[in-house]
């Protein structure tokens, strides 16, 4: 038998349904389109300081693994988003791709049946269905984009996106970000390093040409003119937090060449909570206090929250507890609701105090 010199470790190559086919089966609606456009504009107003009073809050499950639970969460969050809209711009965290440090469940797009079958074609359709349904509730969605192919399937339903700590340094992801249509945040590195995120901010603002796919799934040269709507996400790392006053100032000093007024978001989880989900709450309170005391470079917060607190492990064929994360631990809904109202009340008090002072 002739020895293979290519694909020696590849078991199978299966043609994937194209983005156009998925979008034709699951077209956007007037409601979803309106939510995306209006939220992106509102977020730009916050970014560039035209809206000085509201904080952006991206909140939701670490990862979505069950559509029904995602809709239940979205219905509750929509109620709070409406009640606090004068002070908070709330976007639901709808994460479908999970970068793994070693191995594990890679997210709903990669493995929608949670059984290791990795039916990615179904995963793309399921992710798009979930985004459509949540947008149709009137609630905007945000996610972390991991695979450069993914945006062609779902980016028209996203109001905000992030590039994660493991991929911020990647040229591929910086190029991808330069062509995305929504505002995007770059996390600092897993070791806590800020410079990689600052470099990513600068790189993604510039034009690029790179290899990608078009809506028909054909390998193409993608040319972009750069994404002006970028910001930093401070998430801690290397055993240290980076949400304090000195860390916010350091990040702002690294962005002196940017025209963005409020370029700093704080991820209340991960390194900033020392991976203790309950510590997200005091982190959020600290960031709110800084904002109310005059640090207007703060854009907002990123929170990991689910219907129930904590986490459970993923195993193939396992029966999961309802409402509990299968990736990172999250705060539960009761704490989430309380926290969002506390944030809104703090901002309302700041507005009142400023009005009295003037």
Automatic annotation (TrEMBL):
InterPro entries cross-referenced by the UniProt entry: Aldolase_TIM (IPR013785), DAHP1/KDSA (IPR006218), DAHP_synth_1 (IPR006219)
GO molecular function terms listed in the Swiss-Prot or TrEMBL record: 3-deoxy-7-phosphoheptulonate synthase activity
Enzyme class: transferase
Domain DAHP synthetase I/KDSA span(s) in chain numbering: 44-339
Catalytic activity reported: D-erythrose 4-phosphate + phosphoenolpyruvate + H2O = 7-phospho-2-dehydro-3-deoxy-D-arabino-heptonate + phosphate
This protein's pathway: Metabolic intermediate biosynthesis; chorismate biosynthesis; chorismate from D-erythrose 4-phosphate and phosphoenolpyruvate: step 1/7
Record Pfam families: DAHP_synth_1 (PF00793)
Keywords: Amino-acid biosynthesis, Aromatic amino acid biosynthesis, Transferase
Domain of life: Bacteria
Keyword Amino-acid biosynthesis: yes
E.C. numbers: 2.5.1.54
Gene3D superfamilies: Aldolase class I (3.20.20.70)
Assigned protein family: Belongs to the class-I DAHP synthase family.
NCBIfam families: aroFGH, PRK12755.1
Function: Stereospecific condensation of phosphoenolpyruvate (PEP) and D-erythrose-4-phosphate (E4P) giving rise to 3-deoxy-D-arabino-heptulosonate-7-phosphate (DAHP).
The protein's name: Phospho-2-dehydro-3-deoxyheptonate aldolase
Native source species: Candidatus Nitronereus thalassa
């Amino acid at each position: 038998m002739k020895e293979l010199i290519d694909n020696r470790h590849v078991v199978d190559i299966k043609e994937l349904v194209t983005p156009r086919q998925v979008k034709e089966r699951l077209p956007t609606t007037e409601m979803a389109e309106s939510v995306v456009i209006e939220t992106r504009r509102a977020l730009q107003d916050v970014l560039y300081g035209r809206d000085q009073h509201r904080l952006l809050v991206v909140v939701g499950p670490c990862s979505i693994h069950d559509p029904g639970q995602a809709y239940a969460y979205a219905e509750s969050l929509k109620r709070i988003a409406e009640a606090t809209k004068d002070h908070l711009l709330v976007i639901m965290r709808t994460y479908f791709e999970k970068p793994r440090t070693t191995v594990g469940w890679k997210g709903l797009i990669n493995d929608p049946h949670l059984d290791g079958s990795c039916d990615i074609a179904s995963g793309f359709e399921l992710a798009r269905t979930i985004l459509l349904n949540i947008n149709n509730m009137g609630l905007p969605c945000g996610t972390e984009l991991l695979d450069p192919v993914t945006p062609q399937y779902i980016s028209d339903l996203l109001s905000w996106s992030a590039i994660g700590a493991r991929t911020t340094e990647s040229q591929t992801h910086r190029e991808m970000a330069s062509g995305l249509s929504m505002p995007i945040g770059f996390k600092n590195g897993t070791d806590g390093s800020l410079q990689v995120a600052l470099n990513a901010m600068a790189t993604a603002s510039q034009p690029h040409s790179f290899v990608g796919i078009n809506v028909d799934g054909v390998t193409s040269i993608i040319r972009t003119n750069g994404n002006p709507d970028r910001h930093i996400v401070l998430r801690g790392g290397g055993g240290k937090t980076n949400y304090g006053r000195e860390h916010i100032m350091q990040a702002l000093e690294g962005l002196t060449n940017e025209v963005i007024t409020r370029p700093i978001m704080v991820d209340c989880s991960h390194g900033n909570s020392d991976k203790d989900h309950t510590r997200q709450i005091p982190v959020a309170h600290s960031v709110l206090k800084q904002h109310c005391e005059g640090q207007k470079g703060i854009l907002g917060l990123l929170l990991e929250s689910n219907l129930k607190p904590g986490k459970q492990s993923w195993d193939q064929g396992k029966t999961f507890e309802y409402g509990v994360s299968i990736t990172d631990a999250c705060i539960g809904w009761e704490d989430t609701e309380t926290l969002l109202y506390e944030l809104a009340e703090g901002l309302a008090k700041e507005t009142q105090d400023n009005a009295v002072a003037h």
